[in-house]
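Box 3.1. Reading complex inputs
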Amino acid sequence: MNAGPVPTPSSPPPDVVRAASIELVVTDLAASRRFYVDVLGLVVTQEDDRCVYLRTFEEFIHHNLVLRQGPVAAAAAFSYRVRAPHDLDRAVAFYRELGCRVERRPDGFTAGVGDSVRVEDPLGFPYEFFHDVAHVERLAWRYDLQPPGPLVRLDHFNQVTPDVPRAVRYMEDLGFRVTEDIQDAAGTTYAAWMRRKPTVHDTAMTGGDGPRLHHVAFATHEKHDVLAICDRLGSLRLSDRIERGPGRHGVSNAFYLYLRDPDGHRVEIYTQDYWTGDPDNPVVTWDVHDNQRRDWWGNPVVPSWYTEASLVLDLDGNPQPVLARADTSEMEVTIGADGFSYTRPGDDADALPTWKQGEYKLGHQL
Amino acid sequence: MNAGPVPTPSSPPPDVVRAASIELVVTDLAASRRFYVDVLGLVVTQEDDRCVYLRTFEEFIHHNLVLRQGPVAAAAAFSYRVRAPHDLDRAVAFYRELGCRVERRPDGFTAGVGDSVRVEDPLGFPYEFFHDVAHVERLAWRYDLQPPGPLVRLDHFNQVTPDVPRAVRYMEDLGFRVTEDIQDAAGTTYAAWMRRKPTVHDTAMTGGDGPRLHHVAFATHEKHDVLAICDRLGSLRLSDRIERGPGRHGVSNAFYLYLRDPDGHRVEIYTQDYWTGDPDNPVVTWDVHDNQRRDWWGNPVVPSWYTEASLVLDLDGNPQPVLARADTSEMEVTIGADGFSYTRPGDDADALPTWKQGEYKLGHQL
Amino acid sequence: MNAGPVPTPSSPPPDVVRAASIELVVTDLAASRRFYVDVLGLVVTQEDDRCVYLRTFEEFIHHNLVLRQGPVAAAAAFSYRVRAPHDLDRAVAFYRELGCRVERRPDGFTAGVGDSVRVEDPLGFPYEFFHDVAHVERLAWRYDLQPPGPLVRLDHFNQVTPDVPRAVRYMEDLGFRVTEDIQDAAGTTYAAWMRRKPTVHDTAMTGGDGPRLHHVAFATHEKHDVLAICDRLGSLRLSDRIERGPGRHGVSNAFYLYLRDPDGHRVEIYTQDYWTGDPDNPVVTWDVHDNQRRDWWGNPVVPSWYTEASLVLDLDGNPQPVLARADTSEMEVTIGADGFSYTRPGDDADALPTWKQGEYKLGHQL
Amino acid sequence: MNAGPVPTPSSPPPDVVRAASIELVVTDLAASRRFYVDVLGLVVTQEDDRCVYLRTFEEFIHHNLVLRQGPVAAAAAFSYRVRAPHDLDRAVAFYRELGCRVERRPDGFTAGVGDSVRVEDPLGFPYEFFHDVAHVERLAWRYDLQPPGPLVRLDHFNQVTPDVPRAVRYMEDLGFRVTEDIQDAAGTTYAAWMRRKPTVHDTAMTGGDGPRLHHVAFATHEKHDVLAICDRLGSLRLSDRIERGPGRHGVSNAFYLYLRDPDGHRVEIYTQDYWTGDPDNPVVTWDVHDNQRRDWWGNPVVPSWYTEASLVLDLDGNPQPVLARADTSEMEVTIGADGFSYTRPGDDADALPTWKQGEYKLGHQL
């Protein structure tokens, strides 16, 4: 499987502006609404018995998160906004040439969005492209409505896929560019960050069993905003929703927090990466053994973060089968029984103090 | 051992103003100086080949940290400032009545400090009391000298001692008051926070093998100051100095970070607890099984934080023998093989998701 | 008037713990409630048609702000908590010896407070002393209830009085200590900051026509909390409630913001001064001509801040007559027609750039 | 003068990526270097007796600020990075068609930059376009080198020009888009913000006597970073460099501070505007009489901010003549003798409290 490389279509790709929205299937809509609205503070643009359409405080399009009641928790659509209506024609031609299943609905797949294209992309992900969308009030100036730690933008997706280089080449054909990646000396690529908008990413390709959604990330303005969300979760006795962090990423240099929603969908709260919009933006490559690559402070990555992710749906709404990663896994080579990580290049393999080795490694050692 | 309770002296205790300074014996003075001065940014008041006298940016007394070169890493003095010169007479009488070894030096034990009393207290700790001290410039307004994340005050000590209730009763005789503690339903006390100045503590008594120094804490003004120290450690490739955090404490409601210095002495960076100065300040008691007691966000406490601590010296400069805790340990009852913790009172014993169970527990389970 | 110095009583003063509460008479209780509760986010402990009892998020006593409906906006009581019940006897004796009018009510003057003493003090202010008070939940850990920019403590009062040295001497007799003041080379004192609790002040004495209340200050934890209040006021189209700031004080080194409530009562939002609890805490004296004394960034003080203040009531509820300051005023000597200020000692009198000279001065010059 | 509209060239404009760098002529290079390097903390990439090339911490191109010693303080070049080398050919054709003076240097005008085009644009500004540029280390991860309040990016320019609509139309031909503007009911436009990169602006057109440089803006990550710069200026007794702020803009929703360098060049420190990169990004139009348009907290704009600006140079290095604005000025219609501003739409013309009316107005009234 994951046979050969995805061929480069002769059709030009659609001009993607940004990662704009995600549709999550949730198994208890009321519970999910409580999490995203009452706890995280997202704004309800529209809702009915089946769906809740939410947006962040600086968003002016109808929504950037759709929660839809369904039987199996999964990601139903990774939606990108394209620059012009004709980019939808391009998307159709681009994916048809790749032999992908393509569906176009002039009235859109969700409320608030017009003419849209959904595809099962070569990696098995349900990608959506749209241009027409209803405008709603941008609540950037409505500080009276904002909770401590307001989420202001959808920043990016993160996808789990077995073969990262294969995924990267396909995404480059789609017009994305790599900003950072994680490799080892043997040339294995463990993850890559790819962007259309001039930040570190609109999506990342993370090596693992896939296709699966690793997480969707929403941005705050400041680091204390991220901490405020942690504090509120503690007060609500929901601290077990915090999976990893808060911390500073090495990759992206951003400040982060990972939460798990009531269905286990992972949500990152993210702030302060850097400008990548120059055509010759330097790519940053991290050594997979560098213990500061995923947390600049060297704090251990919890194993669940490496292994758990959400299913994704095909265009009929059925979960895509998950294919195993063939390459070595980042967890195994860094904190597994035979793995190692260092703080300083040249340090011995076992140079990390016990408090930096992580749960998984310690588990093996005891 | 830890025989009976410490008797209450008939002599009145000295009037302690605050935890004021600590003297640490370090095995490589140059390495320690680099850590505290070049990395953490403390200010050198005075130094020679054997000692470095350091202070925080809002301190006006000569120093609040003494690094002294020596053969074995240890804490040599926990120094409290007393209100008046005659409080030294009181300290002498108070500890003599307790049968403790007491030494008084009219010229002080360290540079910058005058008439001082050092004792081996009933718990085996080297406590010091002083009033006379040289004044130096309070650098509060010198933002031009301050690094990102300036340390402004010494906030508190934390001591490891086998029998917490015994320690608390003695410290109450010394005039301290409990502000918070950790107990279980059976009445075992695992730790207690005690104050003279109107914050959560000047020192805490943590149950464990002792007498040992658990940590000394310095305060910053804001949470981003704590994060700035983490970021700098990452840039200097010293992230392995970060042992635990950053995070929000349940106890004290303060924001924290724990570092380990080149000798393994633990240093907390701490900010934003609350006013406790009213005579009827309510004591907050935490259930040892509450997973938010030590980290409000429920993040696991690394085992080293529970088990490792610094030796303390007697008045001859020899390490005090360490006596084992008789009561159950907090680590065992919370994340040990038979321990449990909960996020919500009433949750099942195994209700914590895997990412919240901590390294130690996972180790046992694998 | 302001005849001679206030004599020192032979009776010992009550042991004041801290500035604890203030009672403000407001002319439109609903409007004031909206301001303090809906806008500033204070917590209602109790209310009826005539009074609203409010507290900050870290307060555990019944209230620290009472809003009382009345015909004339004024301050009715500056309330200090004393250490022990017998301190009320001391307060009675102390003020009786000064010839002041004294009223004691074993059941208290307001809800939630027991045995209390109110006096018309030698400066004409309605001071209150109490010990017994109902405890309520300290909401420090209730981040789920806190708005952006939560007010956590009542920090201090600020009183306008014609003769600052006279006021200081009386307050020293009451057990307060000066931490900072503003003087000129001729020895005139323009303002003094005085403390019981170990911060820069529990109250300040500001030279001007008095007795009047200059402001009451509530504390936040961080500077962004203060900014969040400004942002919210903007969103509510209430930015005209912002009188001065935000900015950094020279005196106290704290970060500040001054608001005006619906009656014009001035409220400061304040954070991050420094420890002053040592018995030999160094007093900081500022030159009245130093343009950074009141704003470390040299931003002009708006004239209303110098000239406007709230009436205070006598024990019958009638406004105290306001006596004129005899000494030169700080506004006149700094930004008045003949005044001057400098950024750097030794600079010419007219060295301030136009944007630093302030409204008042510019007014005269045009 | 400012005769008719600038015609739209038939040549396509260059594809501008972003405002990338500015060259300032300074009259005392050592003094300017102290301000930008020692005080603001910019990084020196290269320097000689005549020029200092500086960059912010997240910049990877050679410099984004050139200080050049010269006889008259002025702005010598507003430099934009273009997407591809052939965009320089486009720039030449575009401006030649407009009849502008154009100069192209294959080796660049400054160190570190290759093939460049400089023009005297139709508004009289010295615009530069370049693509080839030397890469240097992006210091984003070098927290060990960063001072409190690190400047991370050049964010935008702000230009003073007599006829804003004329300038806007020309800039739209150059490929820029308006994101926000300030107008009055009669249709006069007082200022417009225009972007290429997806933030609120790469440059703004501010109505006034021009062509002049109003300011260049550098970005920080958080608001406390801006405050840290103020605090440091206070400590260095350079608070008179602070002209306006800190504050929250209405336009852009960003947090701001305006400084004046040793020559009076205005520098803004700026953080946290919003995403504008969608093709249908909603334009925000502010009423010139809305007192929250320039400061969301309603704080007065100091008159110097409206009236003072830097000369700009022609391609021979001589100052461009300054032409007077014909339309009414924003200062006159808002805080001038006949002007007015409101906090709430519908408020009376004189509804602002005295502390919000500003220096200029007060000056007239006294």
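In summary: The CA atoms of residues 32 and 262 of chain C lie 6 Å apart.
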